[in-house]
Design brief:
Layout (H helix, E strand, L loop, with lengths): L3 E5 L4 H11 L2 E4 L4 H6 L4 E5 L2 H8 L12 E4 L5 E6 L5 H7 L6 E2 L4 H4 L5 H7 L2 E3 L4 H11 L22 E3 L3 E7 L5 H15 L6 E7 L6 H9 L4 E4 L1 H5 L9 H5 L5 H8 L5 E8 L2 E6 L1
Parallel strand pairs: 1-2, 1-3, 3-4, 5-6, 9-10, 10-11
Antiparallel strand pairs: 4-5, 7-8, 9-13, 12-13
Helix pairs in contact: 8-9
Protein name: Cobalamin (Vitamin B12) biosynthesis CbiG protein
InterPro entries: CbiG_hydrolase, CbiG_N, CobE/GbiG_C, CobE/GbiG_C_sf, GbiG_N_sf
Pfam families: CbiG_C, CbiG_N
C-alpha cells in the first residue's frame, strides 16, 4: 500500500497516471465509493476533477482534520493544485510536490500564504507531535501578527503552560492515562504502568505522554514515577475531562465531579481517540492506554 492515491474521471486518467508516477502513488477511477475507500487507506488524496465533485464526495466523510487524509484537487488542465482540506496536515506539502510537473500550488492557509510558518508545519518538519491541538488556532493567529517565541526545554524539566501555548513533543503514538489513590508511591505507579503497557503490547518509547487530572498536581509519587520513566506528564482540566465520553464507568463523578480520570484524561490528548486498553486497576493505580 502506497501513501497517496490519485482519483480521476476516466477522461483525465492519463493526467492521473503522470501525477501518480511523480509522487509514487496509486491510481483509481472515480466512482461513488472511491473517496470513501481512499479515506480509510491512504495518507493523502489527489483528485483530478472539478473541486465541486471532490467536495461533494468528501463532505460526508470529514470527521477531524487531525486524522482525515488531506485532499488536493488538481484542475483538469493540470495547471493548479488546490488543497481543499488538510492544508496544514500534509495538503500543502502534496500540492508543492507537484511543482515539478508544472502544476502551481494554490495555498490558502493563512500562515503559509503570508510566508509564515505554522505550528503544524513546524511539528511535521521536526518530527514532533502537537500535544494540545486546540492551541494551534490561537498560536497560528499570533504568528500572523508577529513572531511567536519557541522555547526548547531539555530534561529534566517541568513546564506549566496555559491552554493557548502549543506543546510539541517527540513523536509517539500513545497516551497513558493515570488515576491513583492519595499518597501512592512512585514504585506503585511505575509498576502499574509497566504492567499495563505489557498487557497492551506497547513499548515505553512509543508513549507520547502520560495524563491525569489537575487534582493530582501535588501527588509526589505520580510526578516522580513519570520523571523516572523520562516521560511527559500532563495535568488535564476538569472541563477537558468531562468533554470526553469514556467507555468505562467511574466513581470519580460522585467523588470529584469527573467522568473519570485515566480514560478521559488520555482521550482528551489523543489523536485518534482509539482505546487500546480500557482502564484497569493495579492496586492503588488505574491505567488506560489510548492511541
Amino acid at each position: 500500500m502506497k501513501k497517496y492515491i490519485v482519483i480521476s474521471l476516466d477522461r483525465f486518467r492519463e493526467s492521473a497516471e503522470i501525477i501518480s508516477r511523480a509522487i509514487d502513488g496509486d491510481v483509481a477511477g472515480y466512482s461513488k465509493d472511491a473517496f470513501k475507500e481512499a479515506f480509510d487507506c491512504y495518507e493523502g488524496i489527489i483528485a483530478v476533477m472539478s473541486a465541486g465533485i471532490a467536495v461533494r464526495n468528501i463532505a460526508p466523510l470529514l470527521n477531524d482534520k487531525w486524522t482525515d487524509p488531506p485532499v488536493v484537487v488538481v484542475s483538469p488542465d493540470m495547471k493548479y493544485a488546490v488543497p481543499v482540506t488538510g492544508g496544514h496536515h500534509g495538503g500543502n506539502e502534496i500540492a508543492k510536490m507537484l511543482t515539478g510537473l508544472g502544476i502551481e500550488p494554490v495555498i490558502t492557509t493563512a500562515t503559509e500564504s503570508m510566508n509564515r510558518d505554522s505550528v503544524e508545519n513546524y511539528a511535521r518538519r521536526n518530527n514532533l507531535e502537537i500535544l494540545n491541538k486546540d492551541s494551534t488556532r490561537r498560536v497560528n493567529a499570533e504568528i500572523l501578527d508577529g513572531n511567536v517565541p519557541c522555547y526548547l526545554l531539555n530534561e529534566p524539566a517541568m513546564a506549566v503552560v496555559s491552554p493557548e501555548v502549543s506543546v510539541l513533543l517527540s513523536t509517539g503514538r500513545y497516551i497513558v492515562g493515570i488515576g491513583c489513590r492519595r499518597g501512592v508511591s512512585a514504585d506503585e505507579v511505575i509498576s502499574a504502568i509497566r504492567k499495563a503497557l505489557n498487557i497492551a503490547g506497547i513499548d515505553k518509547k512509543d508513549v507520547l505522554a502520560y495524563s491525569t487530572t489537575v487534582l493530582k498536581r501535588d501527588e509526589a509519587g505520580l510526578t516522580e514515577a513519570v520523571r523516572t520513566l523520562s516521560g511527559n506528564l500532563v495535568f488535564v482540566s476538569d472541563e477537558e475531562i468531562n468533554d470526553e465520553c469514556p467507555e468505562s464507568d467511574s466513581r470519580a463523578y460522585d467523588k470529584v465531579g469527573l467522568k473519570g480520570v485515566a480514560e478521559p484524561s488520555a482521550l482528551s490528548l489523543s489523536k485518534s481517540k482509539k482505546i487500546i486498553l480500557k482502564k484497569q486497576i493495579f492496586g492503588r493505580v488505574t491505567i488506560a492506554v489510548i492511541e
